[in-house]
Amino acid sequence: KFRVYASKRATRKLFTIAPEDGTLAPEEDSRVEVTFLSHRELRLKDNKDVRVQIMDGRSGEVVETFPLSISARSVFSKTRTVPMRGINFGAVQYGEERERSFEVKNDGEFDFNLQVVALNSDDDKALLERVEKDAAAAREGVAVDTSEDGAPPTGPIELGRFTVEPQGAVVPPGTSAQFTVKFAAEG
Prior knowledge:
Blueprint: E1 2-6, H1 9-14, E2 15-18, E3 21-22, E4 33-36, E5 42-55, E6 62-74, E7 79-82, E8 97-106, E9 112-115, H2 122-139, E10 157-159, E11 162-165, E12 168-171, E13 176-184
Organism: Bicosoecida sp. CB-2014
InterPro entries: Hydin-like (IPR033305), Ig-like_fold (IPR013783)
GO cellular component, one term: axoneme
């Protein structure tokens, strides 16, 4: 018999172990999955709080206990928008257009998808529902499938008198995405 467990409460919150215990026949192997999920930035190096107990199959007596050495790191996306104070179109004469730009920089370690949507639009609601669903799954320790995410739309999006192009981008680490905003001073 075997048992795999986290010895400290704080560690139990970070790891899901499946299966936690089992019975093995002689010369038999078993695969145990240890899943790490943190809701804050965290670094573990050679953490030995996850332990394996080997027990006698008949008596249940613990024969051996040893730690698993685990290293893991969780990080958040790090982004910044330039200019930081927003964009100002100033006075624009009726019938004319003025163009400004901003960029979103990825100072993190992973690609991220970015999409401009109208507040309270169907796209906004769909994205919000997806984010909430993914967050709930992550809280329960369920892996989030991003294989169907695809690239965000790249064409322009009209938001009242403003047009933003592109509507979205995939921003790799250490790079930025440039967006152009046009303001049309009309009716």
